[in-house]
Amino acid sequence: MAKAADYIDNVRKYDSGANEMVVQKVCNYLGIALTNRDSSLVSCSDQTELNRVINGFCAKKLNMDAAEAAACCETVCEAMKAERMKSRVTFYYLCAKNCGKLDIFGG
């Protein structure tokens, strides 16, 4: 199982006050996806990948409509554009934070 300690520094580059317990809950949610290097990353240049985040995480877990989810992902892609390898944990955390839904993970 993925540990928040492996991801917290990356998350804190974007949210200095990130709670490690919340990051751990995001890790728990992602589960097996974090065991594979490819699936542990998000590619903003791959529309299929973004659709997976929009239709899966944003729509189902964060209860967002398609337009709201797409805008949220676009915002996170812009925030993380300097990173070539975008951590899925950080990406999902920022989606939840930017849309005011961290409380789903206890934040």
Distance between the termini: 21 Å
**Percent in strands:** under 5%
- CATH class descriptor: Mainly Alpha
Q: Which range best describes the helical content: under 10%, 10-25%, 25-40%, 40-55%, 55-70% or over 70%?
A: 40-55%
Radius of gyration, taken over Cα atoms and rounded to an integer in Å: 12 Å
Strand order of the largest sheet: 1-2
CATH hierarchy: architecture: Orthogonal Bundle
Oligomeric state of the chains present here: single chain
What is the name of the CATH topology? Recoverin, domain 1
How many separate domains?
Answer: 1
Q: Write down how many β-strands occur, each being a DSSP E stretch of 2 or more residues.
A: 2
Count every helix, treating DSSP H or I runs of 4 or more residues as helices.
Answer: 5
- Mean pLDDT equals 95
Q: Low-confidence segments, ≥5 residues, pLDDT <50?
A: none
Q: Structural class of the secondary structure composition? A: mainly alpha
CATH homologous superfamily grouping: Jann4075-like
The major β-sheet equals: 2 strands, antiparallel
Element string (H = helix, E = strand): HHEHHEH
What is the overall shape? globular
